[in-house]
Structure formats: C-alpha cells, structure tokens
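User: Sequence recovery, please. Input:
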C-alpha cells in the first residue's frame, strides 16, 4: 500500500474545521491508505430516527466525508474538491450502534474521482448501505502517489 498524500491527523483536523457539521458527528479515521479509508461514526442519540434506527442523513454524511478523505488521500489538501453526485442504497436497517465506512477510489482522473463506500453497523459483517459517488477536483498541483490498480491522477 502506498503512503497517502495526507496524514490521519491532517485529514481529521480538516474535517472538524472545514466541515463543522460533519466534524460534530465525532467521526474518526481508523485506517488510511492511498485511495482508501476506514472511518467510524460513534453512536449518538441525535442520530436515531423513529423506529430506533440510525438516520439516513447521518449515514450519508459519513459516506460523503469518507469519499472526500479517500480523494484527498490521493491528491493532498485540495479543499475545494466537492461532491458532484452521490447515490446511497440502504440495504438493511442499521442497529443503533456506531457505523463504520469502508471507502475506496475506483477511478481517479485529473478532474473527477469516482468511488464507493460500504457502511456497516458495529459488530455486523453485512453492509447496511452501499454508496457510490463522484468528486470534482479543481486544478491543483499534483501529488505523486502511486496506487496499485488505480489510474494515475494525471490520466483522464
């Protein structure tokens, strides 16, 4: 696995300061690689919806910030990288416990990155949601990060 273009501490700080709403979720990075990230969102009473399950907007926020972190792990601190599209498919009812996001970039180009995120309830090996999304990448100085199985950041 290649070294990511940003550190865990730098990414967590950017999330807390640059995206305060999601930063308030208490999300932490458990594992970071070039083009991959595992994040954990702790259970909070504020995330519960009627029926005793974790609310969709909280899970969507976790998936979006995981994709953001995975993109930045390849291109470095390019804060204006933004979501252009995202689709979430809720597969199962999540338990009222912490949610884990496993994200990987599937295609990295000069202007767009495409990735997927699987969301899991703590202690359950079956995903509760599958997310795909595209990020728009503004012009920036490229960071040299080689990732096995991915296209180089300067290819489109």
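Assistant: Recovered sequence (156 residues):
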């Amino acid at each position: 696995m290649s070294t990511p273009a940003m550190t865990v501490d730098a990414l967590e700080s950017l999330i807390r300061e640059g995206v305060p709403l999601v930063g308030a979720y208490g999300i932490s990075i458990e594992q970071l690689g070039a083009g991959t990230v595992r994040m954990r969102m702790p259970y909070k009473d504020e995330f519960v919806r009627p029926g005793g399950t974790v609310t969709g907007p909280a899970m969507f926020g976790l998936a979006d910030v995981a994709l953001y972190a995975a993109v930045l792990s390849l291109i470095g601190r390019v804060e204006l990288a933004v979501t252009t599209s995202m689709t979430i498919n809720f597969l199962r009812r999540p338990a009222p416990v912490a949610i884990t996001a496993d994200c990987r970039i599937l295609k990295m180009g000069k202007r767009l990155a495409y990735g997927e995120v699987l969301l899991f309830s703590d202690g359950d090996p079956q995903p509760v949601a599958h997310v795909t999304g595209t990020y728009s990448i503004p012009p920036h100085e490229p960071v040299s990060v080689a990732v096995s199985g991915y296209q180089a950041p300067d290819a489109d």
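The first strand starts at residue 28 and ends at 33.
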